[in-house]
Amino acid sequence: MDTHTPKFKIRLGLFIIGGLAIFVIAIFIIGKQQHLFNPVFKMTTTFYNVSGLQVGNNIRFSGITVGIVDNINIINDSTVQVDMLIEKDVQMFIKTDCKVAIGSEGLIGDRLLVITQGSTGAPVVKEGQQLLSAEPVEIDAIMASLQVTAGNAAIISAQLAEIMLNINSGNGTLGRLISDSAIAQDLSATMSNIRSSTKGLDENMNAAKENFLLKGYFNRKAKEAEEARKDSADRKAAEQNAIDKANRKKNKK
């Protein structure tokens, strides 16, 4: 005897249909991500260290996701082989001199493979071909370098603070120069003496020019300077005339 009501049967049928629809959609999405429904070709590369790369991670070329990591195998103690599944449509753009590097989705995202662009004249890759790789930079190495830099910056900051403290305390030559008013007065007096000496030297030179024993010497120097200036002006005028003459000949032709 059937004890189920028609409403229950309808709900059960809708539940089964919904479950099948969700299953089909899930299969379609997973298949699309794994390139099960698109033609693909296989390539390989090797790394010394894959830095957390996993099977199923994306592969990008020119910033576009074009495939996934198909398999990762340890060949020996210094070589890890990575198999890649790439969409067949982009095979024509991947050249034999392209390189494979390990990147990440943002700063702390999942690892991925990045295929760099090759040269225009290089041949296109073939099925199963191996590409060269670029070893990744480890985060630990970057952090170690940053720690060394931070330590050096701390040392420099401490030294600068010590120097400024000595200057403010009046220690050292620069500190005494800044804090000791007597040194500043001495420097001011020295500069005043230099200006006075320069003025006196100018007066002596003017007096020497008026001296009848040296007047001929200064007149000769002035004449030589004037002749040199005139010769320079004549040369420039001759060069300009030659240029103008050449231009006129060119225009006539």
What are the low-pLDDT stretches, counting only 5+ consecutive residues below 50?
none
Q: Helicity, in percent?
A: 40-55%
Please give the order of strands in the largest beta sheet: 1-4-3-2-6-5-7
Number of helical elements? 5
Shape: elongated
Account of the protein in words:
Among the domains are: 40-136; 211-248. β5 and β6 (111-115) form a beta hairpin. α2 crosses α3. It has 5 helices and 7 strands. It is α/β, with parallel strands linked by helices. The longest helix has 41 residues, at 212-252.
What is the gist of this entry?
It contains five helices and seven strands; from the N terminus they run H-E-E-E-E-E-E-E-H-H-H-H. It has helices spanning 6-33, 139-169, 172-179, 181-210, 212-252, and strands spanning 40-47, 58-61, 64-76, 79-87, 99-104, 111-115, 132-134.
